[in-house]
Structure formats: C-alpha cells, structure tokens
Design a protein that fits this description.
Largest sheet: 5 strands, antiparallel
Low-confidence stretches: 11-20
Strand content: over 45%
Number of strands: 29
Number of helices: 1
Structural class: mainly beta
Order of helices and strands: HEEEEEEEEEEEEEEEEEEEEEEEEEEEEE
C-alpha cells in the first residue's frame, strides 16, 4: 500500500514537472539605476501573456547601475551595462538565465573601456557583444565564449565629433548599437554629432567592425539621434531623435539608409524635448515612441503604411508616471509595458492589434528607478 502511494506521488510530481517545462513562460528582465551603490539592480518577473499580470521571481545581487540589458539570441544569457553613469569606466556583465526559476547567475564582467555604457547588443550568432559608451563617445567589441562569458574587448572605436547644442552635443555620445537584419552592418546613433554611424560587420574577424563611411547618415543639426530599430520586414528603419522630438523614417537596402519621412512624436510643441525609446509591433503594423519631459510623459502611436513604411500619427497614451525611459512590447504583441524612471513604476497596457491603441490594465508594479525592460518567451525551458 505504501509503495503504491509513493509511486502515485512520484508520478504526480514527475508529470507536474514535465508539464510545467512544456508550458511557454515569458520573463521580464528589468534593469535599474541603483544611485551608484551596490543593490539588487536587476529584477526578474514572470509575465502572464493572457492577463498581463506580473509575478516577481528573482533579483540580482550586489550590482551597481545595471541600466541597460540585452538577452542573447539563444535566450540563455543576460548581458548588462553595469557601473554606468559614474565618473569612471563602466563594465559589461554576463549572467546565466535559469528560465524555470527566473534566477540569474553571475558569470563574469569586463571593463567596457569608457564612461557610462548605455546600450549593448549581441550579434545574431551570439559570438560578439557590441557596447556603446555614451559619455566616452566610443564603442567596444567583446568576443563571447560558449558558456556565455565575456573576453576583454578586442576592438575599440573612438569618435570625436560634436554639434550645435553646446550643452548636450559637446562631443560624440553613442546612444545605441543596432545590427542590420542580415547581421552584416551595425548602426550607432550618435546624439552628440547628429549622425547615424554605420560599420560593416564581419563575424570572421576578432576585430569585426570596419568603416562604412559612405553609409553614414547626417541628421539635422541639433536633432540628437538616440534609439534605432528596423521593421520586421527589413525594408525600413526608424530612429527616435531625443533633442528634436521627431521620428525619422528610412528606407533600408544593403546597408544604405535613405530618408523617407520626419514626423513629430510629441502631442504639443515645447521649448525642448527628451524623446527616448522606439519599437515596432511584432506584426509590423504600428510603431510606438516614448516622450519624456516636464510637460509630457506619453507613448506616441503611429500606424505604418505597409507599402512604403511611412508613419501616420494615431494618438498619444499617458504613461501614468514620470520619465518613460524605456518600454517593451511583449513577444505576443498583446501588451506594452512602460518603465517610468522618476516615479519608480512599471505600467502594463493592453494593445489593440487592430487599432494600435493602448489601454491601461490594472497591473502595475513598483521598481526602484527602472531604466530598461527586456522580455523573452521560453518554449522549451532550460534547453
């Protein structure tokens, strides 16, 4: 009798474990500013893609200003800009993701070779990490290992240009590092010099970046290009300009960006602007941009013309907080989550797939100084 009971309990446990590992799980990774002091820094939540509810699973430990995150293409590793916004060189840190528990385990870190790392990304093969250092005005390239660890940087490129806004554009300020759809080019919006810098990417070289000066885009003076993204079809690219409050639309072909449109992102004219983040919905039908400043904290919503990539403004959605530094669209495309840095809250919005409009849900969480949101759905857990 006891043997049968033990067998039954073991069977139930085994089935539950097996079943739980087959149910897709969506994780939200939150990067924060920690006021320059060691703290949890990174927060991991399980996201319910049906209701929009968030459940905290894990945190980091003893981290300083992990202000920007990226998840490797294979989903196994989390990389972070750490020790950012400090008067010394920052670092790039690597973590192993446990997709079942949500825990992140520190692997190693390397100096990023400059002050204030603000953006990093992996190439589509996960062999390289490209980091942009805002205050230093340079980019650094790291080769990764099979276990997700990072080698010391193998290439550094320093920029020296400036532009007309003497307060914000005194020198080069790289604000994002974005690969092309085919992984053969990478683009560096430079807020300080009003340029979108272009480099060829050759995965076969330990120093994979080479100049592509003929592909550089010179944006209008004082525009301050910040974040950059491609349309899912690979034919169009979009850049949010922090200082002008404008979204620039580009036609993309074989590394070349040609301007198609410039459209205002804010709901009203202001003396100055602080545009921040930009994303295209997974279905490619809508584009969203975040606007932060004293008089406006909104997400602007645009429809995308499927024939030419141009935008039409649909409306603006309050973020129900102050300073929406970054936001993310969940992998299902049903929700949009906004990180309000100053008010320490992350708000969940339901996204209408037909109209593109956003509706605030009842779900909202408190996180200290949230600065970056990344999401990943795991279909085969810990594979």
């Amino acid at each position: 009798m006891k043997t049968n009971l033990l067998f039954f309990l073991f069977s139930v446990f085994y089935v539950n474990v097996l079943f739980s590992q087959k149910i897709p799980k969506t994780l939200l990774f939150v990067g924060t500013y920690t006021a320059g002091k060691p703290d949890s820094g990174i927060y991991v939540y399980e996201f319910n893609s049906i209701s929009g509810m968030l459940k905290q699973l894990a945190t980091g430990n003893n981290l300083v200003n992990p202000s920007f995150l990226t998840v490797s293409t294979n989903g196994k590793y989390l990389y972070a800009c750490t020790e950012s916004k400090l008067p010394q060189n920052g670092n790039v840190s690597a973590f192993k993701i446990d997709s079942i528990s949500g825990k992140i385990n520190f692997i190693n870190k390397q100096s990023c070779g400059g002050e204030n790392p603000v953006y990093l990304t992996t190439d589509k093969t996960d062999n390289f990490i490209i980091d942009g250092n805002y205050t230093e005005g340079n980019v650094t390239v790291f080769k990764t290992n099979a276990d997700g660890s990072i080698n010391p940087y193998s290439q550094m490129i320093q920029f020296k240009d400036s532009s007309i806004n003497k307060t914000r554009q005194d020198k080069a300020h790289i604000h994002s590092t974005v690969f092309s759809p085919k992984n053969d080019f990478i683009y560096f919006p430079d807020l300080g010099s009003d340029k979108i810098r272009a480099f060829k990417f050759d995965i076969g070289n330990i120093e994979p970046l080479s100049n592509a000066d003929n592909y550089i885009v010179k944006t209008p003076l004082g525009s301050g290009p910040r974040h950059f993204t491609f349309h899912p079809n690979g034919k169009y690219a979009y850049c949010i300009e922090e200082l002008s409050g404008i979204v620039a639309v580009y036609n993309y072909s074989n590394g070349k960006l040609d301007t198609l449109q410039r459209i205002f992102s804010y709901s009203k004219k202001q003396e100055s602007y602080g545009s921040s983040d930009i994303h295209v919905s997974p279905d490619g039908l809508f584009l969203y941009a975040s606007n932060r400043w004293e008089n406006e904290n909104t997400i602007s919503i645009f429809s995308i013309d499927q024939n030419n990539g141009k935008l039409t403004l649909i409306g603006h959605q309050s973020t129900f907080g102050d300073h929406p530094r970054m936001f993310v669209i969940d992998p299902s495309g049903k929700f949009l989550l906004v990180a309000n840095l100053v008010t320490n809250n992350i708000v969940v919005f339901k996204r209408n797939s037909k109209t593109g409009l956003l509706t605030k849900t009842k779900y909202e969480i408190s996180v200290p100084r949230p600065s970056c949101l990344k999401m990943r759905t795991y279909n085969n857990l810990n594979d």
